[in-house]
Amino acid sequence: MPADSPTTPATPGLGTLRAAPAGLPEADLAPPVVAESRDPFTALRVIHLLARIERGRPIRLADIVDRLNASHLDWIFPASVVADVAVGLQANWMADYRNGSGIEIQDGAYGPTITIEDSSRVDPWIVRQAERQRAACHDRLEAFSRLDRAGGEG
Description:
The chain is α+β, with helices and mostly antiparallel strands. It has helices spanning 40-50, 61-71, 79-97, 122-145, and strands at residues 33-34, 59-60, 75-76, 103-108, 111-116.
């Protein structure tokens, strides 16, 4: 150790932070995300858009994918993943209402389409679907916050 170095011993804890150097950019950027099937963060974003599309007419899956990718610039939504969310919604609708008219997925002349029933029961139902996905997102975030290491131990 050089003679002119401080001899203060290291102690636990970070202590007070000094002011950031002039011009230091913020570290507030989020990494890009590729949407995945069975991911509540993905499902929430897809459901949020599906809740707002026009009711009672077929909407091309490709148009939904394009809007998601344009709205969430730090995400990539593959068509297969968006279709998986729609199929999950369709299954939930069938379980809740015992019919397939609420969420219809079909092959159209210009590719796969999604039609959402134009009835008063859709809005409260789709809000519940989004709330369930949001709760799953919070559960994941809480579990993550309890980890001490990236490997999952903690």
